[in-house]
Design goal:
This protein is mainly alpha-helical and 177 residues long. Helices cover 73% and strands 0% of the residues. It has two domains: 30 residues; 124 residues, no CATH class.
Length: 177
């Protein structure tokens, strides 16, 4: 059935009749060419990424953070005689405290810019992901700002970590029966 312009309309929305094939495919092809041209233009202006360099920096900084944790472990073991869960908990608390302190001082953001993922992966990165939103939204108040926004980034990590731990625990429980 013809529309106001005299062209045939499709029987169902979005599916052209035999005579309309060229109009839809032609505009789609033109949009694809324009998109490709735009992507080529952006690539020509963007600086080249240094994947190897970025990975090396992330590896060095992440490894350095882990070495600091291992150093703390050795020192707590030698000085205080901690072992087992006491030792693991103490090292974790110190690293979390250092991550939050460095975030509050603005140092951890500079480390993150230089290291990329190397500063995100260790436990200090998790502390940073909790402390950063808390600092950013503290002007909104203690409840609606600090408390509500503190787990915006880290919340999904905690939820999925707890859920996956529960699932694994149930699997082990039923395998032992």
């Amino acid at each position: 059935m013809p529309n106001k312009s005299g062209a045939a309309q499709s029987g169902t929305q979005g599916t052209p009749l035999a005579g309309e094939k060229g109009a839809k495919n032609g505009s789609t092809a033109h949009a694809c060419r324009a998109n490709q041209n735009y992507l080529e233009y952006v690539r020509s202006l963007a600086p080249p990424t240094k994947h190897f360099h970025n990975c090396l920096r992330a590896f060095i900084v992440g490894g350095l953070i882990c070495c600091i944790g291992q150093f703390l472990r050795y020192e707590l073991e030698a000085i205080f005689g901690f072992s087992g869960d006491e030792l693991a908990g103490s090292v974790s608390m110190i690293l979390i405290f250092l991550g939050c302190l460095l975030t509050g001082l603005g140092v951890y953001d500079r480390i993150g810019k230089a290291a990329g993922a190397g500063s995100i992966v260790p436990i200090t990165g998790f502390a940073n992901s909790v402390a950063s939103p808390a600092l950013e939204f503290k002007a909104e108040g203690m409840i609606t700002g600090l408390a509500a926004k503190m787990f915006v980034v880290a919340g999904p990590i905690i939820v999925y970590g707890v859920l996956s731990g529960a699932v694994v625990g149930l699997i082990y429980f039923f395998l032992r029966l």
